[in-house]
């Protein structure tokens, strides 16, 4: 049996299909993954993401510590509440995890890391914190919900603590507001507007139930995966790993090489990769033939393996199969993917596939 | 989860309907469609193809994964449910009816005796827990 979030009893009551995920027992869907997907694109859905781990980073050296730890530069965060997406690299330039880091005020940050990697991440962070005046309390007292979709913010607003309603609705994308252990970020993993909300675990069930009563659809990890794939967002462990770094995972934009004197972990390895060149491209694929793209299927051109699908699936919005893939630089606009021994034609496209309910590629 | 008594079953969750004219209709059970989740693609067997019992002959793909369909009995494929091409979710909605996958002309009708009846299939599901 895996760990259970504070909402586990709610998931069971709703008849969720429960699956093991990163050491947790999590809802895969509550009946139909595709209906849940459409609910988020068209109205609003709520995901229990309490398996993800907030870690506070506090102390006089919080800033220099994070500027060493992360490939993106937290010095960019000037306004309290501003969020930054970053990879945490190993010295070889591979990805230990990807995370969001919020600036809460001088010497106070909060990172949110993936469930499956949380223990590894925290051990790494503590090891790297040697010599810095910084403390890293994990916040297992907090639950986390993602409310996503075009109606998500207006549905959530009246259910937030009164003092947070106005500040939350005034948030620009990628900013957060907080009050009395509630933390509301205008962020997400679906390609839709919405909030990610951290709150005391004891209040999670009441808030969850209130959202459902307001007509927000409960959504499981299945819909979360197809939504993020359509949005062209990477999944750690599939699209990037400890072996495959950000420059070959479409995450070069998250690596802050400037200023040059900032010596973040993994910098030398990434600079060597850039110097060497001939990096693999990270692209989107649209399957034009019949079938469903899945991770690890080979990308082939004229019978030769030229890459691999890293995340694939069926896009409920486009009614086509789509994928993220890593391919050789020489691959042109057309390729094929080997599905059960057959080369099925596909087209190379630029993600995202879908944003704010609308297709971003031509079919 | 329904298990119609007039059908035969396999441990790999296919159902077989004896059409009484030397042909059978094959699909996947209600339990199978529920376990797979929303179906998004079906690869049908070609009409005319000769199959032996337990041959992998079709593929159903859900939002989660691809699963092989194994022919419960041997014979020649006489029909494939082309309507599933545009509407694979029909299997989720009506696994034992409109969601049938293919029909087969039996090469050896005695193979039907090797299949499970509804009671035995129910026991298979109970054992899987």
TrEMBL record, chain A:
<dbReference type="GO" id="GO:0005829">
    <property type="term" value="C:cytosol"/>
</dbReference>
<dbReference type="GO" id="GO:0004047">
    <property type="term" value="F:aminomethyltransferase activity"/>
</dbReference>
<dbReference type="InterPro" id="IPR027266">
    <property type="entry name" value="TrmE/GcvT-like"/>
</dbReference>
<dbReference type="GO" id="GO:0019464">
    <property type="term" value="P:glycine decarboxylation via glycine cleavage system"/>
</dbReference>
<comment type="similarity">
    <text>Belongs to the GcvT family.</text>
</comment>
<protein>
    <recommendedName>
        <fullName>Aminomethyltransferase</fullName>
        <ecNumber>2.1.2.10</ecNumber>
    </recommendedName>
</protein>
<keyword id="KW-0032">Aminotransferase</keyword>
<dbReference type="InterPro" id="IPR022903">
    <property type="entry name" value="GcvT_bac"/>
</dbReference>
<dbReference type="InterPro" id="IPR029043">
    <property type="entry name" value="GcvT/YgfZ_C"/>
</dbReference>
<dbReference type="InterPro" id="IPR028896">
    <property type="entry name" value="GcvT/YgfZ/DmdA"/>
</dbReference>
<dbReference type="GO" id="GO:0005960">
    <property type="term" value="C:glycine cleavage complex"/>
</dbReference>
<dbReference type="Pfam" id="PF08669">
    <property type="entry name" value="GCV_T_C"/>
</dbReference>
<feature type="domain" description="Aminomethyltransferase C-terminal">
    <location>
        <begin position="281"/>
        <end position="354"/>
    </location>
</feature>
<comment type="subunit">
    <text>The glycine cleavage system is composed of four proteins: P, T, L and H.</text>
</comment>
<dbReference type="GO" id="GO:0008483">
    <property type="term" value="F:transaminase activity"/>
</dbReference>
<dbReference type="InterPro" id="IPR013977">
    <property type="entry name" value="GcvT_C"/>
</dbReference>
<feature type="domain" description="GCVT N-terminal">
    <location>
        <begin position="8"/>
        <end position="258"/>
    </location>
</feature>
<dbReference type="InterPro" id="IPR006223">
    <property type="entry name" value="GcvT"/>
</dbReference>
<keyword id="KW-0808">Transferase</keyword>
<feature type="binding site">
    <location>
        <position position="196"/>
    </location>
    <ligand>
        <name>substrate</name>
    </ligand>
</feature>
<dbReference type="Pfam" id="PF01571">
    <property type="entry name" value="GCV_T"/>
</dbReference>
<dbReference type="InterPro" id="IPR006222">
    <property type="entry name" value="GCVT_N"/>
</dbReference>
UniProtKB/TrEMBL annotation, chain B:
<dbReference type="InterPro" id="IPR003016">
    <property type="entry name" value="2-oxoA_DH_lipoyl-BS"/>
</dbReference>
<comment type="subunit">
    <text>The glycine cleavage system is composed of four proteins: P, T, L and H.</text>
</comment>
<comment type="similarity">
    <text>Belongs to the GcvH family.</text>
</comment>
<dbReference type="GO" id="GO:0009249">
    <property type="term" value="P:protein lipoylation"/>
</dbReference>
<protein>
    <recommendedName>
        <fullName>Glycine cleavage system H protein</fullName>
    </recommendedName>
</protein>
<dbReference type="InterPro" id="IPR011053">
    <property type="entry name" value="Single_hybrid_motif"/>
</dbReference>
<dbReference type="GO" id="GO:0019464">
    <property type="term" value="P:glycine decarboxylation via glycine cleavage system"/>
</dbReference>
<feature type="domain" description="Lipoyl-binding">
    <location>
        <begin position="23"/>
        <end position="105"/>
    </location>
</feature>
<dbReference type="InterPro" id="IPR000089">
    <property type="entry name" value="Biotin_lipoyl"/>
</dbReference>
<dbReference type="Pfam" id="PF01597">
    <property type="entry name" value="GCV_H"/>
</dbReference>
<dbReference type="GO" id="GO:0005829">
    <property type="term" value="C:cytosol"/>
</dbReference>
<dbReference type="InterPro" id="IPR033753">
    <property type="entry name" value="GCV_H/Fam206"/>
</dbReference>
<feature type="modified residue" description="N6-lipoyllysine">
    <location>
        <position position="64"/>
    </location>
</feature>
<dbReference type="GO" id="GO:0005960">
    <property type="term" value="C:glycine cleavage complex"/>
</dbReference>
<dbReference type="InterPro" id="IPR017453">
    <property type="entry name" value="GCV_H_sub"/>
</dbReference>
<dbReference type="InterPro" id="IPR002930">
    <property type="entry name" value="GCV_H"/>
</dbReference>
<comment type="function">
    <text>The glycine cleavage system catalyzes the degradation of glycine. The H protein shuttles the methylamine group of glycine from the P protein to the T protein.</text>
</comment>
<keyword id="KW-0450">Lipoyl</keyword>
